[in-house]
């Protein structure tokens, strides 16, 4: 079995787990138009689709992962873990700004590019979710400003 097919099988397993847990998300009252179930179910469907494509197409074995690539993966994992921990306390905009900036730096952006992409991503997505989709996001330390 090629590494692509293995990844596809793992993606299908993860999509199933996400769907099971996502299906159980029910809000005690309707505070958002789409509800808390929509995002995990949509994400599970997308992951499952990608998993099926990998299983069907297969492919050749991947090259060995370099040390630099593993370092990048580790740095991304740590960044996302820290993001999850500080998300509620700092709020969506500041934590997303820092996370997006750090991810941009990991991918080789300059400091200016990282700052601009962090600002655009954090503020733009906040406006989209909060004002466009009526999804409540934590304001954290910026509670009085936004």
TrEMBL record:
Transmembrane segments: 7-26, 38-56, 68-86, 98-129
Domain called DUF1468: residue spans: 9-138
Sorted UniProt keywords: Membrane, Transmembrane, Transmembrane helix
Domain of life: Bacteria
Name of protein: Tripartite tricarboxylate transporter TctB family protein
Natural source organism: Paracoccus aerius
């Amino acid at each position: 079995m090629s590494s692509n097919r293995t990844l596809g099988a793992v993606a299908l397993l993860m999509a199933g787990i996400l769907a099971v847990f996502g299906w159980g998300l029910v809000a005690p009252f309707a505070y958002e138009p789409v509800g808390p179930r929509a995002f995990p179910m949509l994400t599970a469907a997308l992951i499952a689709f990608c998993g099926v494509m990998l299983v069907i197409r297969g492919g050749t074995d991947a090259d060995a992962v370099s040390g630099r690539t593993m370092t990048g993966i580790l740095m991304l994992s740590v960044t996302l873990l820290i993001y999850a921990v500080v998300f509620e306390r700092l709020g969506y905009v500041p934590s997303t700004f820092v996370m997006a900036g750090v991810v941009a730096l990991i991918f080789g952006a300059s400091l200016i590019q990282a700052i601009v992409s962090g600002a655009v991503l954090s503020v733009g997505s906040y406006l989209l979710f909060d004002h466009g989709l009526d999804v409540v996001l934590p304001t954290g330390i910026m509670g009085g400003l936004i």
